[in-house]
Amino acid sequence: MQKQIKILLTLITVLILAVSCAKNNPNNPNNNINNGGSDGERTYTFIASEEMLSKPWTDQTKKDYFENSWKENLANQIIYKDNLYSTINGRTDENCNYYDDGQETIKTKFKYATNVVNNGKNYIGGLYYSSTAYTGYKWFIIYLNEEGAEICVNAKGTLSDDENTFPDASTEWYTTPSATYGYIKLN
Protein backbone atom coordinates (compact mmCIF):
# COMPACT_ATOMS: atom_id res chain seq x y z
CA MET A 1 0.00 0.00 0.00
CA GLN A 2 2.83 2.43 0.85
CA LYS A 3 4.48 1.70 -2.48
CA GLN A 4 1.26 2.62 -4.32
CA ILE A 5 1.01 5.88 -2.38
CA LYS A 6 4.64 6.75 -3.25
CA ILE A 7 3.98 6.04 -6.94
CA LEU A 8 0.82 8.17 -6.85
CA LEU A 9 2.65 11.05 -5.13
CA THR A 10 5.47 10.81 -7.67
CA LEU A 11 3.00 10.99 -10.57
CA ILE A 12 1.23 13.99 -9.01
CA THR A 13 4.58 15.75 -8.49
CA VAL A 14 5.60 15.11 -12.11
CA LEU A 15 2.25 16.46 -13.33
CA ILE A 16 2.54 19.60 -11.20
CA LEU A 17 6.08 20.23 -12.46
CA ALA A 18 5.04 19.67 -16.07
CA VAL A 19 2.23 22.22 -15.81
CA SER A 20 4.19 24.82 -13.83
CA CYS A 21 7.25 24.61 -16.11
CA ALA A 22 5.34 24.53 -19.39
CA LYS A 23 6.13 27.17 -22.03
CA ASN A 24 2.59 28.58 -21.82
CA ASN A 25 1.79 27.92 -18.18
CA PRO A 26 -2.00 28.18 -17.77
CA ASN A 27 -1.45 29.51 -14.24
CA ASN A 28 0.53 32.50 -15.53
CA PRO A 29 -1.94 35.40 -15.37
CA ASN A 30 -0.02 37.40 -17.97
CA ASN A 31 0.28 34.61 -20.55
CA ASN A 32 3.38 36.26 -21.99
CA ILE A 33 4.90 34.65 -25.07
CA ASN A 34 8.35 35.80 -26.09
CA ASN A 35 9.19 35.66 -29.78
CA GLY A 36 12.89 36.35 -30.21
CA GLY A 37 13.07 36.64 -33.98
CA SER A 38 15.96 37.97 -36.02
CA ASP A 39 14.21 41.34 -36.29
CA GLY A 40 14.19 41.77 -32.51
CA GLU A 41 12.30 40.43 -29.57
CA ARG A 42 8.57 40.72 -29.25
CA THR A 43 6.82 39.79 -26.02
CA TYR A 44 3.12 39.13 -26.44
CA THR A 45 0.87 39.98 -23.51
CA PHE A 46 -2.61 38.67 -24.20
CA ILE A 47 -4.13 38.77 -20.71
CA ALA A 48 -4.27 42.05 -18.76
CA SER A 49 -2.61 42.15 -15.35
CA GLU A 50 -4.89 42.24 -12.31
CA GLU A 51 -3.01 45.31 -11.06
CA MET A 52 -3.86 47.30 -14.20
CA LEU A 53 -7.44 46.05 -14.30
CA SER A 54 -7.97 47.38 -10.77
CA LYS A 55 -7.07 50.94 -11.84
CA PRO A 56 -9.70 53.31 -13.26
CA TRP A 57 -9.56 54.15 -16.98
CA THR A 58 -8.79 57.75 -16.01
CA ASP A 59 -5.38 56.54 -14.74
CA GLN A 60 -2.79 57.28 -17.44
CA THR A 61 -0.61 54.31 -16.40
CA LYS A 62 -3.52 51.97 -17.22
CA LYS A 63 -4.06 53.61 -20.61
CA ASP A 64 -0.32 53.41 -21.38
CA TYR A 65 -0.12 49.76 -20.27
CA PHE A 66 -2.98 48.72 -22.56
CA GLU A 67 -1.79 50.80 -25.52
CA ASN A 68 1.84 49.66 -25.25
CA SER A 69 0.82 46.02 -24.80
CA TRP A 70 -1.57 46.17 -27.77
CA LYS A 71 1.03 47.79 -30.00
CA GLU A 72 3.63 45.21 -28.94
CA ASN A 73 1.13 42.48 -29.90
CA LEU A 74 -0.17 43.85 -33.21
CA ALA A 75 2.03 46.61 -34.67
CA ASN A 76 3.79 45.75 -37.95
CA GLN A 77 2.26 42.29 -38.21
CA ILE A 78 1.24 40.19 -41.18
CA ILE A 79 -2.32 38.87 -40.78
CA TYR A 80 -2.87 35.41 -42.23
CA LYS A 81 -6.17 33.86 -43.31
CA ASP A 82 -5.75 30.83 -41.05
CA ASN A 83 -3.26 29.17 -38.74
CA LEU A 84 -1.57 27.39 -41.66
CA TYR A 85 0.02 30.79 -42.47
CA SER A 86 -0.08 30.23 -46.22
CA THR A 87 -2.49 33.00 -47.32
CA ILE A 88 -2.03 36.64 -46.30
CA ASN A 89 -5.19 38.64 -45.53
CA GLY A 90 -3.48 41.91 -44.71
CA ARG A 91 -1.03 43.71 -42.49
CA THR A 92 -0.82 46.29 -39.73
CA ASP A 93 1.39 49.35 -39.50
CA GLU A 94 3.32 50.76 -36.53
CA ASN A 95 0.09 52.33 -35.20
CA CYS A 96 -1.89 49.04 -35.46
CA ASN A 97 -3.99 50.30 -38.38
CA TYR A 98 -5.12 47.45 -40.66
CA TYR A 99 -4.59 47.25 -44.43
CA ASP A 100 -5.92 44.62 -46.82
CA ASP A 101 -3.15 42.71 -48.60
CA GLY A 102 -1.71 44.79 -51.44
CA GLN A 103 -3.58 47.97 -50.45
CA GLU A 104 -2.12 51.26 -49.24
CA THR A 105 -5.36 52.68 -47.83
CA ILE A 106 -6.23 52.02 -44.18
CA LYS A 107 -9.18 49.62 -43.96
CA THR A 108 -9.65 49.83 -40.19
CA LYS A 109 -8.15 52.54 -38.03
CA PHE A 110 -6.93 51.88 -34.48
CA LYS A 111 -8.48 54.32 -32.01
CA TYR A 112 -7.43 53.15 -28.53
CA ALA A 113 -6.62 50.06 -26.50
CA THR A 114 -9.07 48.43 -24.12
CA ASN A 115 -9.83 45.14 -22.42
CA VAL A 116 -12.18 42.41 -23.63
CA VAL A 117 -13.66 39.81 -21.28
CA ASN A 118 -14.10 36.38 -22.87
CA ASN A 119 -14.43 33.05 -21.04
CA GLY A 120 -13.43 34.68 -17.76
CA LYS A 121 -10.20 36.15 -19.18
CA ASN A 122 -9.45 39.86 -19.59
CA TYR A 123 -7.77 40.14 -22.98
CA ILE A 124 -5.93 43.22 -24.22
CA GLY A 125 -7.53 44.55 -27.38
CA GLY A 126 -8.13 47.61 -29.50
CA LEU A 127 -11.12 49.68 -30.57
CA TYR A 128 -11.28 50.09 -34.36
CA TYR A 129 -13.19 52.24 -36.83
CA SER A 130 -13.84 51.25 -40.45
CA SER A 131 -15.01 53.92 -42.87
CA THR A 132 -15.83 51.22 -45.45
CA ALA A 133 -18.14 49.13 -43.23
CA TYR A 134 -21.94 49.34 -43.43
CA THR A 135 -23.70 52.19 -41.65
CA GLY A 136 -24.13 51.36 -37.97
CA TYR A 137 -21.39 48.72 -38.07
CA LYS A 138 -18.29 50.86 -38.36
CA TRP A 139 -17.07 50.24 -34.78
CA PHE A 140 -15.63 47.00 -33.43
CA ILE A 141 -13.05 45.62 -31.01
CA ILE A 142 -10.25 43.23 -31.95
CA TYR A 143 -8.22 41.13 -29.55
CA LEU A 144 -5.69 38.33 -29.94
CA ASN A 145 -5.94 35.06 -28.06
CA GLU A 146 -3.05 32.92 -26.87
CA GLU A 147 -2.88 31.08 -30.21
CA GLY A 148 -2.52 34.31 -32.20
CA ALA A 149 -6.10 34.29 -33.49
CA GLU A 150 -7.50 37.72 -34.26
CA ILE A 151 -11.01 37.81 -32.76
CA CYS A 152 -13.50 40.52 -33.74
CA VAL A 153 -16.18 41.74 -31.33
CA ASN A 154 -19.08 43.68 -32.86
CA ALA A 155 -21.31 46.30 -31.26
CA LYS A 156 -25.02 45.68 -30.72
CA GLY A 157 -27.32 48.41 -31.88
CA THR A 158 -26.68 51.43 -34.01
CA LEU A 159 -23.61 53.50 -33.25
CA SER A 160 -22.52 56.78 -34.69
CA ASP A 161 -20.81 56.57 -38.06
CA ASP A 162 -18.69 59.56 -37.03
CA GLU A 163 -15.07 58.50 -36.56
CA ASN A 164 -14.69 60.85 -33.59
CA THR A 165 -17.83 59.77 -31.69
CA PHE A 166 -16.63 56.69 -29.82
CA PRO A 167 -18.90 53.98 -28.43
CA ASP A 168 -19.52 54.56 -24.73
CA ALA A 169 -19.70 52.32 -21.65
CA SER A 170 -23.35 51.47 -22.35
CA THR A 171 -22.49 49.82 -25.69
CA GLU A 172 -23.15 46.08 -25.74
CA TRP A 173 -20.67 43.91 -27.61
CA TYR A 174 -20.96 40.39 -29.05
CA THR A 175 -18.90 37.91 -31.03
CA THR A 176 -20.24 36.04 -34.02
CA PRO A 177 -19.62 32.32 -34.66
CA SER A 178 -17.09 33.31 -37.34
CA ALA A 179 -15.41 35.93 -35.17
CA THR A 180 -11.85 34.82 -36.03
CA TYR A 181 -10.70 37.06 -38.87
CA GLY A 182 -7.08 36.07 -39.10
CA TYR A 183 -3.93 34.92 -37.35
CA ILE A 184 -0.52 36.30 -36.52
CA LYS A 185 2.56 34.09 -36.29
CA LEU A 186 3.74 33.87 -32.71
CA ASN A 187 7.00 32.07 -33.50
TrEMBL record:
Protein name: Lipoprotein
PROSITE patterns: PROKAR_LIPOPROTEIN
Keyword field: Signal
Organism of this sequence: Brachyspira murdochii (strain ATCC 51284 / DSM 12563 / 56-150)
Secretion signal, residue range per the UniProt entry: 1-22
